[in-house]
Specification:
By secondary structure, the chain is an alpha+beta fold. The protein contains 3 helices and 2 strands; from the N terminus they run H-E-E-H-H.
């Protein structure tokens, strides 16, 4: 399969329908551009669940103190 799209003045391009269908891309999905061996590959990626990450962050308090902030602050 081969598909072409045009780049706008804002460097945006529409993902052709055939490619969207092949990847299963829907509005609001994230895509990743991988540069490997001189080629660019496009893949659909899942974004992390922000509510889950916020909940996990609340459990990671062992390094969350004034002493830790002082010790690890870039001077």
């Amino acid at each position: 399969m081969s598909a072409i799209s045009k780049v706008t003045t804002k460097y945006q391009a529409t993902i052709p329908q055939e490619v969207r269908e092949f990847l299963g891309v829907r509005q609001g999905d994230a895509v990743q551009y991988l540069i490997e061996r001189g080629e660019v590959k496009l893949k659909r990626v899942t974004t992390p669940d922000l509510a889950y990450l916020a909940a996990v962050e609340k459990t990671l308090t062992e390094w969350d103190s004034a002493a830790d902030n002082d010790a690890f602050r870039d001077l």
